[in-house]
Design goal:
The protein is an all-beta fold. It has a single domain (about 1-290), classed as Neuraminidase (6 Propeller). The protein is about 0% helix and about 55% strand. The chain has no helices and 31 strands. Strands 20, 21, 22, 23 and 24 form a five-stranded antiparallel β-sheet that branches. A four-stranded antiparallel β-sheet has the order 1-31-30-29, with no helix packed on it. It is globular and about 45 Å long. It starts with a strand and ends in a 13-residue tail after the last strand.
Length: about 300
């Protein structure tokens, strides 16, 4: 793996841009940051805890802001904790990548405050799915969910609630299946998509189909889907990328050396370069990937 840049403050949410740069968030720094030829430049100081990010149909960057987390250093790693002392709730933010100006697009749904928005993916209709991982407090924990919203701020819908600590979210290449990772249990879930913001719900704890559940001590973070339909899940503790077939029957693991490997996205020529955030050590790395990534709406289309 090739190191692109180091010294980042818990990077996540990478977006491989057409110009060769990578836009990502630095959760512990509270910024949306561009990485270019080993250099970094802050696009916007968003505050809180910017987490997942995606390019929208209007050319804006949409950011899941978890409201802020505590971080501490241990054995050379930066490790996230519960809600920050100044935590006021989560939000979906819309950022102009050219000027850095931003607004809080959504802070609640049906009168309920968003707790810890985490990851986001746009569909062909121009709407976006996002997970709310929820927030841990000293003696309690909020409940997580999966939501669907429109980019203009006109509507937001709670689709799956509650669901334990939902993290990475992505779409199958044909756009007919939604995937989400359940972090602490190391599970990957799938739902049939019936229409924009509509899922076929099943009588399971996550109201979806269980693709696979981890048998080892590892957790699942964010994910991306390759063009063959495999779900590439950033894996914590057993640091690396777990590539899971759509039926869950085949799983391969690509180690990265960082137990807090959190995100993967695809870019470069033919989308065969994988960009991976090593959040514990504060690095963005890249590597050639055996399969091309699924093109993302409004970025690679």
């Amino acid at each position: 793996m090739q190191e692109i840049v180091s010294g980042l403050k818990f990077p996540e949410g990478p977006i491989a841009m057409p110009d060769g740069s990578v836009i990502l968030v630095e959760i512990a720094r509270g910024t949306l940051t561009r990485v270019w030829d080993g250099r970094t430049e802050v696009i916007a100081e968003l505050g809180g805890g910017p987490n997942g990010a995606a390019m929208g149909p209007d050319g804006m960057i949409y950011v899941c802001n978890n409201g802020g987390s505590k971080h501490y250093e241990k054995r050379g790693l930066l490790i996230p904790g519960g809600a920050a002392d100044g935590y006021i709730g989560g939000s979906i933010q819309r950022v102009d990548p050219n000027t850095g100006k931003y607004d809080d697009l959504y802070t609640e749904c049906d009168g309920n405050r968003l707790s810890g928005p985490n990851d986001i993916v746009f569909d062909e209709h121009g709407g976006f799915w996002f997970t709310d991982y929820a927030k841990s407090h000293p003696r309690s924990r909020d409940l997580g969910g999966i939501y669907y919203a429109r980019p203009g701020g006109s509507s937001i819908k709670e689709v799956v609630f509650p669901i334990p600590d939902p993290n990475g979210v992505g779409l199958s290449p044909d756009g007919k299946t939604l995937y989400a990772a359940e972090t602490n249990a190391g599970r990957l879930w799938a739902w049939e998509i019936l229409g924009p913001g509509e899922l076929a719900l099943e009588p399971t704890p996550a109201r979806g189909r269980l693709v696979t559940g981890s048998k080892d001590l590892q957790m699942f973070d964010s994910l991306a889907v390759d063009a063959n339909g495999n779900i590439c899940v950033a894996t914590l503790l057993n640091g690396g990328i777990s590539t899971i077939s759509p039926d869950g029957a085949t799983i391969t693991h690509t180690p990265t050396g960082d137990p807090l490997t959190t995100n993967i996205c695809f870019g470069g020529k033919d989308l065969t370069t994988a960009y991976i955030t090593l959040s514990g050590t504060g690095k963005l790395v890249s590597t050639n990937w055996p399969n091309a990534g699924t093109p993302l709406w409004f970025l690679n289309q």
